[in-house]
Amino acid sequence: MIVRALCLAAVLVVALAVPAGAHNVTAGADLRIAQTIAGAEVTVVIKGTSRVPGPLRIGVIAYQPVSGLPVGLEVRSVEDGRALTGTAQAAADPQYVQVRVERTGPHELKLSAGGEVAVVPFRVLVERGSMGDFLIYGGLFLAALLLVGGLLTGATARPGRAMALAAGAAAGVTVAAMVIVFEPQLPPPAPDGAAPAAATPAAGGRPYAQARVETVPARPGAGEEFTLRLDLIDGSTGRPVDDLTVHHEALAHVVVTSEDGRYFRHVHPLRTAPGRLEVRLRADRAGRYLAHAELEREDSGGQLVAAGFEIGSEAGSEIGGEAGSEVDSEVGSEVGDEVGGETSRADVAEAGGAVVPRLQPAAPVAGRPTTIELDVPAGVRPWLGMTGHLLVRSQDGAFLGHVHEMGTPGSRLRFTFSFPAPGRYLAWVQYATGDRIVTAPFTVDVTAAAEAGR
C-alpha cells in the first residue's frame, strides 16, 4: 500500500506540475532597484535571505561621486505591520545594513534621502522543500527498510516473503529514480512568501496602464527644480496600477530630452504612492521637453508612455499660450539640425561633447540592422544589469528606442539597432565607470531602402 501511494504521488508530481510564471522571483536571489533620489543615481540592493526568521541585508550603490549621502531605511511587513529601521550610506562599494525579518511574504522598503521618500514593495522569499525531494528520500528510505527486511526474512528461510520485500525495495528505488529523472524538467515550487497565483488569469494578460503625466509646479521655469509625476490607472477598474514589475533593475525608466536633444536625462522615478511615480528634475533652458517612460505590469507586456511639457523662461511663465498642470501628450515639433554635448546636471558626466561612433554600414538603412561601436575606457561596470545602453530618439520625438550592449569583451561597446524609418535620429550611449555615469551623444542620418539601392 505504501509503495502504491509513492508511485501515485510520483505520477501526480509529474502530471500536475504547472508552468513557471514569466516573472517568478527566485528565492535567495538579490533584488536590485534603481532610484533617482536626492539628485543622485543609486541602486538599492536587497540581498536574498535563506531563512526566516533571519537577517536581511540592504545596501545602496552610488553611480556617481557622493559625499556622505545617508539613506534612511525602514522595512515593514505588510501582513503584521512590524517595522525595522536603519541607515545606509550610498557608496560605490557600500557597507550593507542588516535587519531581522520575522516572516516571509509582502514587505515595503521606505527610502528617505534629501527630503524625498520612496516606498518600494518587495517580497521576502525562502525556498521550500518540494514533493519531489520527499519522494526521492522517502522512496530510498523505504527501499532500504524493505531490503533489510528481505535479507532478514530470507535468512529465516522464508523466501516468499523475502521476494515480496525485495520487490517492494525495487519499487521504492524505481519511484526515487523516476522523480530524479523527471524533476529537473519541472518548474520549481513557488517559494514560501510568493504571491498567490490568480485563480482565473485574465485572457491575454493585464491591460496596459493609462498614464496621466504632469509637472509640479504646473509651469516650471528655467533653472527651477520641478517634479515630473506619472499617475498610472487601470482602465478596466479605475484603480491605481501598483503591480509594476522590476525590469532592467527599475520599476520604470524615464528619459527626458529637450526638443533639440541638448538636454538629456535617464532617470528612475520614486514610487511615492500606489500607482504614482515621481522624479525631481531641473532644466536650465526654456523650451519644449519630451518625456518617455518605459514600464511593465505583471502579467503584461512592456509599455512606452510619451508626453511633452514646457519650461518657461522664468518660474511661473507660460510658453506658446495657455498651459495647464497636465502635460501635452503630443510630441511632434520641428527641431534644429545639430545636437551638442550638453546633457544633464553634474550627476551625469559628459563624454567631452559629441562623439563619432563606428557604424556598420556607414550609411544606415531604415529597417535593416546597424552595428554601432564606441570605444570606452577600461573599468566599465554594469549599470541596470547591462554594460552599456543605447537610447535613440527620432528628431520629432515620436519614436524612442532602447537597446543594450551585446556583451563584447574589451574596451568598447557594441550595439545592434534597426532604425524604423529614414531621417535624422538623436542618440545617446550610456555606461558606468567606477564613480560616474557617462553619456555620449551623437546623431545618425538614416536613408531609405530605395535610396541605398541606387
TrEMBL record:
Residues 315-345 are annotated as: Disordered. Residues 325-340 have a biased composition (Acidic residues). Residues 1-22 form the signal peptide. Keywords: Membrane, Signal, Transmembrane, Transmembrane helix. The chain crosses the membrane at residues 134-155, 162-182. This is Secreted protein. It comes from Nonomuraea rubra.
